[in-house]
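User: I'm new to structure prediction. If I give you an amino acid sequence, what do you actually give back? Let's try with this one:
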Amino acid sequence: MIFKNLLGILILLLNAAGLGFLIYLGILAGIDHFFPKEAEPDSRSSLAKNDPEIINDDIIPQEEDLLKDLDLSDLDKLDLDDFE
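Assistant: Good question. You get back a string of structure tokens that encode the predicted 3D arrangement of the chain. For your 84 residues, that looks like this:
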């Protein structure tokens, strides 16, 4: 009997803590929505924003290299009727 009472009290306390946390998150969201923080000015120049820096031009390999690695011998055994 005492175990049921303690378990009930624990459940009520955890529910109250969860509701309190949801209310806290709601208040924070309301403060952010109604009183937004002022955005800090960007320290980068406008030229740096418009012109991205390219570090590696050769990200995509040449098409010839891709075709060299492709093995088409397995495609001869493929039954295309299975895909209809």
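You can read the tokens as a compact description of the fold. Here is one thing that stands out. The chain has a mean pLDDT of 78.
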